């Protein structure tokens, strides 16, 4: 039962999510015109003249509940320790035409919104989980991003073109990660699909080379732990961690490389792109203070290489607490944004990835920028001009940035609503945590067990991001997603030997 004596179930949480989406300008339901367009879609992709790559041991690796499968991967060895990687991306642009009702809804929300009780997809499920999903056993005309990764992790011989593919095995992160790390047996399809075990091991090797090279260039090594609500029937019963493993790293590393290939392909064709940017952090002095609290010295100006060296050292020294440090750094870096970039512009780099040529292209069922990127690729493939002028693409970039922020606020609120369900009977108990946000609007803390974020109502004076605190739970409100704490004690960053108490 909740603090108000009401059942805390899926139905209630979905009502809260719908209200939160509406308050932030997101549309929880599809308009009739969009649903009508879906019903008129053909059952099969046109494949005339498209190269046939269905015989390769393609596979998807995703969460066990995911049905909107955006990408498949495969790799083969090359001479000199190199490997050729191919990543197939669902061709959503072939079915969601610019100016259609489907496109209008996708352009309004710009993302799929994931909440504990319900997923609000950017595209109707007949598309996102069927016709434009790379589901197992289905033939799909897709965009295939191809590149060679050398023994040193350098990417070369890259290109992007459409091809016909077939998902030979739908795999799940956890079992694949355990197998790659030697902690578990090979998932069933790995042994039954010819060549799949070899290509997965090769992809794992390639991903690790890519990661090492990125970190050498200054890309940041962070590990922010994600959590989801566990249900028993329709009631929330726990919060569970989504553990980091080699399978998740494999997909992340290959998708980062693929996004760079797509950005460079568009640039080579003199076409614009939606760059994904994380600017140099304005709160760098605070990051310097956090590093100093761990005995490290960072330069006075933002320096990604120096910051990453500090992060790598902390991961090695204290792996159990590294996710908490990562969360602090990510909060201080600030959020990413989309920027329209045209030939001749001087683009902003992505501070976290230490790259400039970077876009989002690998999740078109879930993100509108990726769908826009496919339309730009289509123009390039046809030798046509950009379908977006500077004003139009700039408006898309701003909308996607704004709505991504809105969606993240809804998702964060719903995590808190689910957590408030669990904590309602624990008012008065104390917890240890770390400050995750501090501004005139309020101060927030994430307690470690359970992994819940809430607002510090009393005793927030003098706190800043990264400070360690002991807090007491004083109030929960499921409908508002409120979890309120009072500070009992804290250790200020940079003054570890002098804890302050209230």
Write the layout of secondary structure elements.
Blueprint: H1 10-23, H2 32-39, E1 59-62, E2 71-77, E3 83-90, H3 101-109, E4 113-114, E5 119-120, H4 125-131, E6 139-149, E7 155-166, E8 169-172, H5 173-180, H6 188-192, H7 196-216, E9 226-232, E10 235-242, H8 246-268, E11 273-277, H9 284-293, H10 304-317, H11 322-333, E12 337-341, H12 368-382, H13 390-423, E13 430-439, E14 442-447, E15 452-458, E16 468-477, E17 482-491, E18 500-501
Parallel strand pairs: 1-8, 15-17
Antiparallel strand pairs: 2-3, 3-6, 4-5, 6-7, 9-10, 11-12, 13-14, 13-16, 14-15, 16-17, 17-18
Helix pairs in contact: 1-13, 2-3, 7-8
Largest beta sheet: what is the strand line-up?
13-14-15-17-16
Q: Helical percent range?
A: 25-40%
Rounded Rg: 23 Å
Strand count, sense and barrel status of the largest sheet are:
5 strands, mixed, barrel
Structural class: alpha+beta
Assembly state of the chains shown: single chain
The overall average pLDDT, rounded, is: 91
Strand content: 15-25%
The stretches of 5 or more residues where confidence is low (pLDDT under 50) are 1-6, 495-502
Total tally of structural domains: 3
Shape verdict: globular
Q: Please count the beta strands (DSSP E, at least 2 residues each).
A: 18
Q: What distance lies between the first and last C-alpha atoms, to the nearest angstrom?
A: 32 Å
Number of helices: 13
């Amino acid at each position: 039962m909740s603090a108000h004596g009401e059942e805390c179930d899926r139905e209630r949480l979905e009502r809260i999510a719908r209200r939160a989406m509406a308050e932030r300008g997101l549309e929880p339901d599809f308009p009739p015109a969009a649903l009508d367009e879906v019903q008129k879609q053909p059952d099969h992709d046109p494949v005339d003249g498209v190269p046939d790559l269905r015989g390769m041991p393609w596979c998807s690796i995703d969460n066990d509940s995911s049905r909107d499968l955006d990408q498949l991967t495969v790799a083969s060895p090359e001479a000199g320790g190199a490997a050729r990687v191919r990543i197939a991306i669902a061709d959503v642009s072939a079915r969601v035409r610019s100016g259609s009702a489907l496109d209008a809804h996708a352009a309004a929300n710009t993302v799929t919104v994931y909440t504990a009780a319900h997923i609000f997809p950017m595209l109707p499920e007949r598309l996102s989980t069927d016709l434009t999903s790379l589901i197992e056993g289905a033939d799909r005309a897709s965009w295939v991003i191809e590149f060679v990764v050398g023994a040193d992790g350098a990417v070369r011989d890259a290109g992007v073109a459409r091809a016909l593919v077939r998902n030979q095995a739908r795999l799940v992160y956890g079992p694949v990660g355990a197998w790659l790390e030697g902690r578990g047996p090979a998932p069933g399809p790995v042994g039954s699909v010819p060549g799949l075990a070899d290509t997965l091991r090769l992809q794992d090797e390639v991903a690790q080379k890519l990661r090492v090279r990125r970190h050498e260039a200054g890309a940041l090594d962070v590990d922010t732990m994600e959590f989801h609500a566990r249900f028993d029937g329709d009631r929330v019963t726990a919060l569970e961690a989504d553990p980091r493993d080699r399978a998740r790293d494999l997909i992340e590393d290959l998708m980062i490389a693929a996004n760079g290939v797509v950005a460079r392909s568009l640039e080579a064709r003199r076409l614009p792109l939606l760059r994904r940017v994380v600017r140099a952090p304005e709160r760098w002095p605070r990051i310097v203070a956090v590093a100093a609290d761990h005995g490290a010295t960072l330069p006075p100006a933002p320096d990604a290489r120096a910051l990453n060296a500090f992060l790598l050292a902390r991961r090695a020294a204290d792996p159990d607490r590294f996710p908490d440090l990562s969360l602090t750094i990510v909060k201080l870096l600030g959020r990413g944004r989309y920027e329209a970039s045209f030939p001749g512009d001087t683009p902003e780099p992505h501070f976290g990835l230490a790259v400039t040529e970077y876009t989002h292209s690998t999740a078109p069922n879930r993100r509108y920028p990726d769908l826009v990127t496919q339309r730009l690729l289509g123009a390039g493939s046809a030798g046509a001009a950009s379908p977006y002028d500077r004003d139009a693409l700039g408006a898309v970039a701003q909308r996607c940035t704004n709505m991504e922020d809105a969606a993240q606020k809804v998702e964060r609120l719903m995590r808190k609503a689910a957590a408030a369900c669990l904590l309602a009977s624990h008012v008065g108990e104390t917890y240890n945590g770390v400050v995750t946000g501090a501004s005139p609007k309020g101060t927030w803390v994430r307690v470690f067990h359970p992994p819940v974020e809430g607002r510090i109502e009393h005793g927030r004076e003098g706190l800043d991001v990264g400070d360690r605190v002991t807090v007491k739970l004083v109030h929960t409100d499921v409908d508002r997603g409120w979890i309120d704490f009072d500070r009992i004690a804290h250790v200020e960053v940079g003054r570890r030997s002098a804890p302050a108490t209230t």
